[in-house]
Amino acid sequence: MAEQVGPVVPVGPTGEPAGPPKVLPWLVLHTVGRLAVFALLTVVLWAAGLDFWSGLLFGLVLSMPLAYVLLRRSRERLSEALVVRSEQRRREKEQLRSRLSGDQG
Fold first, then answer.
1. Closest listed residue to residue 62, CA positions, set 92, 39, 88, 90
2. Where are the alpha helices (DSSP H) in 5-71?
3. Residue 28 to residues 39, 48, 78, 89, 96: CA-CA distances in angstroms?
4. Cα–Cα distance between 105 and 102 in angstroms, integer?
5. Are the C-beta atoms of residues 86 and 79 closer than 8 Å to each other?
6. Bridge partners (DSSP) listed for residue 17
7. Among 56, 61, 35, 33, residue whose Cα is nearest residue 46
8. Which of 36, 69, 75, 102 has the largest count of CB atoms under 10 Å?
9. How many Å apart are CA 24 and CA 59, to the nearest integer?
10. Confidence (pTM)
11. Is 88:20 a contact under the CB 8 Å cutoff?
12. How far is CA 74 from CA 83, 96, 101, in A?
């Protein structure tokens, strides 16, 4: 078996190294999804006979675990994108500190 040396670089559809995942599209998708789950559940509760405030409150409370289950993929993608962005910013910060301290390594 051949051993792999160095980090694995994901490859994009063009054969070039893939860029980091975008945060904004996944953030928008997840936020809109959570709002849609809340709105749909609230409407269902109102149709079931709950009054305005009870429907809103129960819709809010019940939509949290339901959205957690239904929106698992978008939540995981958003988390991955945030981790990649955080690591990239950490590396850039270390490089900047290194350059400012005079190290040219």
1. 39
2. 23-47, 52-70
3. 16, 30, 10, 22, 31
4. 9
5. no
6. 11
7. 56
8. 75
9. 26
10. 0.70
11. yes
12. 14, 33, 40
Q: In terms of C-beta density within 10 A (0-12 exposed, 13-18 middle, 19 or more buried), how is residue 89 classed?
A: exposed
Query: Is residue 69 predicted with pLDDT exceeding 70?
Result: yes
pLDDT in tens, 83-104: 989 999 999 999 999 999 887 6
HSE (CB half, 13 Å, CA atoms) of 29? 15
What would the pLDDT profile of 24-65 be if each residue is shown by its tens digit? 999 999 999 999 999 999 999 999 999 999 999 999 999 999
pLDDT of residue 1: 52
Bridge partners of 61, per DSSP, are none
Q: State the Cα torsion 24-30-32-33 to the nearest 10°.
A: 160
At 39-49, the pLDDT tens digits run: 999 999 999 99
